[in-house]
């Protein structure tokens, strides 16, 4: 276990504090502000992430099993307002009433009673804890293994499961990484479902959905790929959806017999290649799905993809190995130095020769890439990421890195030594003409003060420091993903 050291830009004890439950729900105007909120910054930042890690001192085994909690930060006229609410999933409501875990979690959380109580119970908990998006007049809390939950954007009250006008059936997954095509005005998402078999073995189904500006599903097509697929994110271009099928295997028997969670049964297979699945967005074009291969590695998140000269380029955060869940170990006891860091790689795919070239772009430990939403699926110049303070090795994310993909120039803003960074979200400046004309907004946990803050940075120049730092009166646990809308859902601040 690591302890505080002058050689590290972080205190592991302070970092652990960010993984404490926040059972309280707040509603207040943020009044403690350093700097000034830009008056033209108008709209709403939504954030999602696990907010509850224990019930009556019985803790989840992994933070990804924590119940989803939505944060809403409203910006208007140089002021800001904070609101947070738990997603009232069926499981959350039932467990809160019972005062104990009633469901198994994907990443190892079990019901009381040992393996006998958990054996053959495959009814996993829909925790709605990964992403939240406002599209087609609906606010949706997403978790990749089940249907979305619809929320009231004015109150964050849960309205129920959303089936997208009966496009989804009960149990259908709708992933937590929708992408928004800025030129076709579409939300593109997928659902992943394994369990079918043929003579070659296990098959995984991928269903792709495209929704118009009114939230109506205008395109839906399904495809089957061989093998088990652990796919969290994907990328799009005007003509393709791109998926990385990580080289992992899944042994279901420990899960079925109640010994482990499903996520604990996933094993990295370094001797196998990573497969890249390229699916045409126009299912009527006659163009077939392509499967290419690149060297073994693991990808959670992609920054962006674009087409050029018969090729597809995609920038992704890749790991040398999959960070497998260690049975019986407290996730707060992470030894960062023993884990491989996520790094930014460029993959060039030639659709004619079917060859893939990979190049390391940024060796610094980084995650949660984001870009100007106007460039999603198209050529782009700037990428922003949560990053470690140090240039080498693995460490908590304490900084935000801006990388110019044309020149290689970098800018780094840091919250070290006591601050820990969540995913930055890019907000375009109204009337802006340059790709980096806008703001980055990120939630920061300050381990020394045991409070969180919302930081606004000038995306064109991170070296200026924070434009505004909005101090919350409490902590918010480390989150996963968030989104921005220009809409305002409260009458006044």
From TrEMBL:
Transmembrane segments: none
Keyword Oxidoreductase set for record: yes
One protein family per Pfam: RPE65
Taxonomy, superkingdom: Bacteria
Keywords, sorted A to Z: Dioxygenase, Iron, Metal-binding, Oxidoreductase
InterPro entries: Carotenoid_Oase, Haem_d1_sf
Requisite cofactors: Fe(2+)
Cofactor binding mode and count: Binds 1 Fe(2+) ion per subunit.
Entry's Gene Ontology molecular function annotations: carotenoid dioxygenase activity; metal ion binding
Chain sites annotated for binding Fe cation: 177, 232, 301, 481
Gene Ontology annotations of biological process type: carotene catabolic process
Recorded family membership: Belongs to the carotenoid oxygenase family.
Name the UniProt record assigns to this protein: Lignostilbene-alpha,beta-dioxygenase-like enzyme
């Amino acid at each position: 276990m690591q302890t505080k050291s002058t050689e590290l830009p972080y205190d592991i004890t302070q970092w652990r504090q960010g993984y404490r439950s926040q059972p309280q729900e707040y509603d207040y105007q943020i009044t403690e502000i350093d700097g000034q909120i830009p008056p033209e910054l108008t709209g709403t930042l939504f954030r999602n992430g696990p907010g509850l890690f224990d019930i009556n001192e019985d803790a989840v085994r992994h933070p990804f099993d924590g119940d989803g909690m939505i944060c809403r930060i409203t910006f208007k006229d140089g002021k800001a307002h904070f609101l947070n609410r738990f997603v009232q999933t069926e499981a959350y409501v039932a467990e809160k009433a019972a005062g104990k875990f009633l469901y198994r979690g994907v990443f190892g959380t079990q019901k009381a009673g040992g393996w006998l109580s958990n054996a053959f119970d495959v009814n996993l908990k829909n925790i709605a804890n990964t992403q939240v998006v406002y599209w087609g007049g609906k606010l949706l809390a997403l978790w990749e293994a089940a249907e979305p939950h619809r929320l009231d954007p004015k109150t964050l009250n849960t309205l129920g499961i959303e089936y997208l006008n009966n496009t989804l059936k009960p149990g259908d997954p709708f992933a937590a990484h929708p992408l928004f095509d800025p030129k076709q005005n579409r939300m593109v998402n997928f659902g992943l479902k394994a369990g079918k078999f043929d003579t070659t073995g296990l098959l995984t189904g991928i269903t792709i959905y495209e929704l118009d500006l009114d939230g109506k599903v205008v395109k839906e097509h399904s495809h089957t790929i061989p093998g088990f697929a652990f796919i969290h994110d994907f990328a799009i271009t005007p003509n393709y959806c791109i998926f990385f099928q990580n080289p992992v295997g899944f042994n279901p028997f420990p899960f079925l017999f109640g010994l482990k969670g499903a996520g604990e049964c996933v094993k990295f297979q370094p001797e196998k290649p990573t497969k890249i699945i390229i699916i045409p967005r126009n299912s009527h074009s006659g163009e077939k799905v392509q499967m290419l291969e690149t060297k073994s590695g693991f990808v959670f998140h992609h920054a962006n993809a674009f087409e050029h000269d018969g090729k597809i380029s995609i920038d992704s955060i890749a790991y040398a190995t999959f960070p497998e869940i260690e049975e019986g170990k407290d996730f707060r006891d992470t030894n960062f130095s023993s884990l491989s860091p996520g790094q930014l790689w460029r993959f060039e795919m030639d659709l004619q020769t079917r060859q893939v070239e990979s190049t390391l772009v940024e060796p610094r430990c980084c995650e949660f890439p984001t870009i100007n939403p106007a460039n999603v699926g198209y050529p782009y110049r700037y990428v922003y990421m949560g990053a470690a303070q140090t240039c080498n090795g693995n460490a908590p994310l304490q900084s935000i890195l801006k990388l110019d993909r044309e020149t290689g120039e970098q800018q780094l803003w840091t919250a070290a030594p006591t601050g820990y960074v969540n995913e930055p979200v890019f907000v375009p400046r109204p009337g802006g003409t340059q790709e980096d004309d806008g703001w980055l907004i990120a939630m920061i946990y300050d381990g020394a003060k045991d409070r969180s803050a919302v930081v606004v940075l000038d995306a064109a120049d991170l070296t200026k420091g924070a434009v505004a730092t909005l101090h919350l009166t409490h902590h918010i646990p480390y989150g996963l993903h968030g989104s921005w809308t220009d809409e305002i859902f409260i009458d006044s601040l």
